[in-house]
Specification:
Length: 178
Amino acid sequence: MWLMVGWILKNKIYYYNRTMITEYTKSDISSILYVINDAALKYKGIIPENCWHEPYMSEEELIIEFTNGVRMFGYKKNNKLIGVMGIQKLKDVTLIRHAYTLTYYQSKGVGRSLLQYILEINQNTCVLVGTWRDAIWAIRFYEKFGFILHTKKQTIKLLKKYWKIPSNQIENSVVLEK
C-alpha cells in the first residue's frame, strides 16, 4: 500500500512515496513521448511486425489523444519524468491509456504507484485497459491489481465499442477490467 504524503487539489499535484504524480498537458508532449517511446521498445519483436513502428507514438498521435479527452498523469523522480499513465472517460467506463515507464525504472514501483493513483481517482467507475495479447508481463501486472482478463469474444466487442484502433491491433489485443 502506498503512503499519501500530500494532496493539493487546486494545482493537481499529488505525492506518493515522496515522489510526485501530477497531470501533464499538451505542453509536456516531448517529455511524455520520450517515456512512451523508450518503454515501448519492449514490444519490439513481441507484437506483430505490422503493428510495430518507430517511433511507437508520434507527436501528432499524442496530440490527437489529448484532443480526444485523454488525461495524462506522470510520475516524477528527482525532477525527471519517468512514468506516464493516461485515462479517458467514455460513456460508462474509464479507459487506461498509454501506461509506460522508462526502461531503467521498470519493475521499481513506478507503474504500481501510477495505477494505484488512477484507481483511487476512479473508484466509482468500471476501468478497462487494453494491451497487446503477447505482452504477458503487462497482463500479469494488471491481474495483480484485481483486473480480470476478458475472453477473446468480449475483448473484440469492448475494443470496437470503446477504442479507435485498426483491425490488426484488435486481433492482437486483450482487454482487462476492474
